[in-house]
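ingest -> validate -> predict -> emit
validate: passed (alphabet ok, no gaps, 71 aa)
predict: started
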Amino acid sequence: APQIAGVSLLGGNQFKLLITGDAGTSITVWRSDDLIDWDPVTNFVNTTGMAEYIETVDPTVGQRFYRAAWP
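emit:
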């Protein structure tokens, strides 16, 4: 199963998730504001076994949670 292996803060209200998993598999990144309702935010093929997801954060939004999974 894919795993979020790291989180980095970037400039410009952005952050990066480092996601690891089997090369050649499809990964969906999900986001939640409450750990109950989850929304898919992107889907991609992990071509090398290590992938990055970068998101711009709205500073007016409270905390958010992320998970990575096979679709």
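The chain has a mean pLDDT of 95.
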